[in-house]
Amino acid sequence: MNDTKNNNGLKVLASLLGIVLLGVIIYSVSLYQDKKKNELALTKEKDLVVEDLNSLKSEYDKAILESNATNEELVSARDNIARYIDSVKTMKSDISNLSRYRRQVGVLKKEREQLLRQVDSLQRSNTLIAMQRDSTFTELEKQTVFNDSLVVQNTNLADVVAKGSALNLTTFKVDAVKERNSGKLVSTTRAKSTDKLKICFTVANNVIAQAGDREFFLEVLDPQGNVLGESYSKTNDNGGSITYSKGTSFYYENSNLDVCDYINKPAGDFQKGNYMANVYDNNLKLLGNVKFQLR
């Protein structure tokens, strides 16, 4: 009798344990399925965040390309979004992180709208400035045409006056020369071989100019812009001044006149590079200019 009761109790207990075990299994399966659903939902949410960030980055890329000049604020914002994209891709998916980045996407969108409005405003301003500039250029071109007409008239008058008051050059050249043992001078283009510079010019004929002694001033600049020679100074009546290498005197008789002079080697050898030579009249008017090179 007692054995029968014990057996019945065990059966009941076993049934209860089975029910409990079944419930635990069902609950565990439910939890696992919920976990998978949540992970899938979080993954989708993460992908949406990345998609939104990529969309923002693309809009910045487009705005930067359309901008006439590189906009540092747009570039900086675009680079920040690129860093956010990398962070989202590598972060552990959870509700708090995704919520934070979702909020950040909203902030970035507002920032984008503000920046693009600024860029649009700047572009409109630049367009207006360009239109005003074009209009100004048009007016300047008109004024230039008018001025050119006046210049032509004034030049014709100046030519008449110049014939009675100033001399001009028809040729001006500089040769680097080497002096041989025989005393003969030969042209060279090598700095190391150069002993002196031969400067020649032709004074044009002028039937109205007054004949007599004249002096022109030679200025030779080395590759560093230093004046070669003794470096004399001269000032004209208008307060203009030059520092020149050498003055060369000649007697003018109203006809073409060839004049040559020399600039001797400086304390050291002539340097390699580009040189410039100028010739001025007594009023310090620049009559000629020539550039040459020593190798």
- Largest sheet: spatial strand order: 2-1-3-8
Q: Can you give the helix content as a percent range?
A: 40-55%
- CATH level 1 name of the largest domain: Mainly Beta
Q: Write the CATH homologous superfamily of the largest domain.
A: Immunoglobulins
Write up what this structure looks like.
It is a single chain. With 295 residues, the chain is an alpha+beta fold. The protein has two domains: 121 residues, no CATH class; 128 residues, Sandwich (Immunoglobulin-like), CATH 2.60.40.10. It contains three helices and ten strands; from the N terminus they run αααββββββββββ. A four-stranded antiparallel β-sheet has the order 2-1-3-8, with no helix packed on it. β9 and β10 form a beta hairpin. α1 packs antiparallel against α2. The model has no long low-confidence stretch (mean pLDDT 78).
